[in-house]
C-alpha cells in the first residue's frame, strides 16, 4: 500500500479563474440557450471594471453606470 499523504496535488483551475475586485472583465451573453438574466443588448461585448463580488453575481461599472451580472456571463479580459 502506498501513502499519498506527502504527495503534491493538482491545483484546481477555478482558483486561477476567479474574479477579484478591480479586475477588468468582458460582458458576454450565454447564447440563446439561457435567456433568463441576460444582460441588455447595449451591454453585450462591453468591458467594465469590477467593484463588488458576491457569491453568485458581480458588480461592474460600465460607462460610469453600475450593473450586476451573473458569473456565467463574464469573461476575464486579458
From TrEMBL:
Keywords: Ribonucleoprotein, Ribosomal protein
GO BP of this protein: translation
Signal peptide: none
Gene Ontology MF term list: structural constituent of ribosome
GO CC entries: ribonucleoprotein complex; ribosome
A Pfam family hit: Ribosomal_L21e
InterPro entries documented for this protein: Ribosomal_eL21 (IPR001147), Ribosomal_eL21_sf (IPR036948), Translation_prot_SH3-like_sf (IPR008991)
Homology family: Belongs to the eukaryotic ribosomal protein eL21 family.
PANTHER family in the cross-refs: 60S RIBOSOMAL PROTEIN L21 (PTHR20981)
Protein name as catalogued: 60S ribosomal protein L21
Amino acid at each position: 500500500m502506498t501513502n499519498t499523504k506527502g504527495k503534491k496535488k493538482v491545483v484546481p483551475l477555478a482558483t486561477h479563474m476567479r474574479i477579484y475586485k478591480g479586475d477588468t472583465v468582458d460582458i458576454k451573453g450565454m447564447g440563446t440557450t439561457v435567456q433568463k438574466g441576460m444582460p441588455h443588448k447595449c451591454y453585450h461585448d462591453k468591458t467594465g471594471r469590477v467593484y463588488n463580488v458576491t457569491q453568485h453575481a458581480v458588480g461592474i461599472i460600465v460607462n460610469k453606470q453600475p450593473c450586476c451580472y451573473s458569473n456565467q456571463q463574464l469573461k476575464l479580459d486579458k
